[in-house]
Amino acid sequence: MAGREFRDEQLPETRFEHVDLTGSRFDRVDLTRSSFSMVDLADVDIRDTAFSRVRMRGVELMDVDISGELLRVTVNGIDIGPLVEAELDRRHPERAKLRPADPAGYREAWAVLTGLWDGTLERARALEARDPALLHESVDGEWSFTETLRHLAFATSSWLGRAIQGNPSPWDPLELPWDTMPDTPGVPRDRAARPTLDQALELRHRRQGEVAAYLEGLTQAELDSATTPVDAPGWPRPNAYPVKECLDILLNEEWWHRQYAERDLAALESRPRGDGSGS
Questions:
Q1: Three-class DSSP category at 233
Q2: Alpha carbon 117 to chain centroid distance?
Q3: Residue 1 pLDDT > 80, yes or no?
Q4: pLDDT of 149-174, one tens digit each?
């Protein structure tokens, strides 16, 4: 029997009992206050999903891969968030410099990130020499390397160009927001674009230079201030944001997306030569 489709329907308080939903897709579904008992979630793929105030009892977690922000996540009575953060700091000592409190600290943090990305780009260049199509390859449904560069340019334009510097529409047509961002007038989202690495890097380096130039003149008073809301469609929304928060978002985006890129480059590098799909 073919699967049924429920779209734009309101089904609160619905009860599913002895129901087979194998292979079903839930997209923009509100499951707030739902209850799951004796549910098989094996091989489930969950992305961009909030788990705030979730209680799990009697669960079995085996071969589970979790990537996300862990705040007050208690497992068997132990808050694992600080343990994970401490282990990340041990594995990546540079993280200590990515929590700055003054302008000099932000300049140092940006220099650290730039240096780390230089090494990642060397790996990407080696893959490009092997097969340029690999840099457009998605690994396990994640962004390709060039899409990652395009997204980081978008993040810089959004949090520096728009939020801090007040440009209502700072984006280049090649820039890429996150996948689930609603279509917004003036915000580009061309997922079909296939720029060369040099084309993606030209935009990427331009945005990196804008951050470096801004940080060079950053004062403590400006760091301690808030942005002026931009009254125009786009991202972030027209609010006043602490400048420090905007800059911390940029550091966080840069560090994590490099981790993802390194992980996926390693997967691509491990493939036998001639095994690129070219997708």
A1: coil
A2: 16
A3: no
A4: 999 999 999 999 999 999 999 999 99
Task: State both tokens at 250.
Answer: 């940029």
- CATH code at 101-269: 1.20.120
Does the pLDDT value for residue 49 go beyond 90?
A: no
Position 121 scores a pLDDT of 98
CA quadruple 124, 255, 212, 245: dihedral, nearest 10: 150
> Where along the chain do its domains lie?
101-269
Token pair listed for 195 = 């720029």
Secondary structure (H, E, C), 10-56 = CCCCCCCCCCCCCCCCCCCCCCCCCCCCCCCCCCCCCCCCCCCCCCC
Q: Reply yes or no on whether the pLDDT at 272 is more than 90.
A: no
Q: Of all residues in the chain, what percent are helix, strand and coil, respectively (each to 5)? A: 45, 0, 55
Alpha-carbon distance of 93 to 126, in angstroms, equals: 26
3-state secondary structure of 44: coil
